[in-house]
């Protein structure tokens, strides 16, 4: 069993190359961020695919005609000019465009393939349950590349084991997509790989499933609702972890800084977790050798660590901002706040306070509101029965016209554009947004002074 699971952070923070480095270290499971890979792949190709890595991965895609179409459409030799916007990618609807499905399958394949290239160690991929429509396509692509584990949080992931089973058995996976205003609460979408590709589908292994949950209560619920053997382990992520956090249980109350207050109901009963008889790892503020030992005392196999890898030299984070975040963290001057409004998902979101980023209200307000990436949109049913999409980060009048509440738009950032800019894949004039956990005490153990750095291997050596 692994002592460390490297977190699947952000959009392209956990690159295939970071995951590969981690998976090649003893007792570590490397993880690829699987969020919005259709957008990321298209933008990497338009940026010139430095080193040719992603074209190499696509050259190994089992359906070469699709790979050729993607490269022809998006690859720009030498990359587009810095002041030019990226070519847009189709957005997901309840009936996704053919070329979007191709790009989604190929994107997940390429990222996992690169993480697994040249070794036989295990690799994981991480998705957000909240982004529901792409799952059946993205998981198929990851399984084509032989992914070993899937981690997933930001929602209750009860449907995923069945999807993994169905794909591995050569069937047609389906997913119930939540639709606000729908009388049944959801609509079902289905993917038929044999019909779609018109070719024989390779035999695919079923990866292990490691749902990310916030409490023992949810872990127990999942074990009761799912067949035995559906889950291979849990990641218990505490509210000081970076990215999207589970909201506090019960009525939402805020502290003097406007952050959600977590109480006794949010505390994890580790004895009950042990009693489930399923391995688990603890995430959120455990990135130290002392806390790794503490996790094992609590009955865990080990820890999930994110921020320590996000700030290392091997992550996909923009170099200039990464240096500044490390510098401030080393000086203990870094501020990370849990913002209940920033993300259009409705989940609290950890925001790093940095000048020139969307953490500043003036920067957020100066940005022209638009929803053009559309990853975090919410499906809703219109009066005529059709399904449309809205996002509290889109122009206010559009959101309200679609039935959204005006108050939901106040303080909301464009997480999609912001996270792409955070890894150097944003459009011109799109300010970045950065997320990190509350604990960055590890920096004092990994840096000699505020200007030095460290690698993923250094981080692992420190944790172990």
Written description of the protein model:
With 464 residues, this protein is of the alpha/beta class. It has a domain at 4-316 and 453-463: TIM Barrel. The protein contains 18 helices and 14 strands. It has helices at residues 16-23, 37-46, 53-59, 64-74, 98-116, 135-144, 160-168, 193-197, 216-225, 270-275, 289-297, 307-310, 319-330, 361-366, 396-401, 415-421, 443-446, 456-463, and strands at 4-6, 28-33, 123-128, 149-153, 174-178, 186-190, 208-213, 234-237, 280-283, 302-305, 336-339, 349-352, 378-381, 387-390. It has an eight-stranded parallel barrel with strand order 1-2-3-4-7-8-9-10, surrounded by four helices. Strand 3, helix 6 (135-144) and strand 4 form a beta-alpha-beta unit. Helix 1 runs parallel beside helix 5 and helix 5 packs parallel to helix 6.
Radius of gyration, taken over Cα atoms and rounded to an integer in Å: 21 Å
Mean pLDDT: 94
Specify the number of helices: 18
Biggest sheet strand line-up: 1-2-3-4-7-8-9-10
Strand content: 5-15%
Helix content: 25-40%
CATH domain fold name of the domain at 4-316 and 453-463 = TIM Barrel
Intertermini distance: 14 Å
Give the overall form: globular
Q: Unreliable segments (pLDDT under 50, ≥5 consecutive)?
A: none
Give the class-level CATH name of the domain at 4-316 and 453-463. Answer: Alpha Beta
The CATH architecture of the domain at 4-316 and 453-463 is Alpha-Beta Barrel
**Biggest sheet: strands, sense, closure?**
8 strands, parallel, barrel
Structural class: alpha/beta
Strand tally: 14
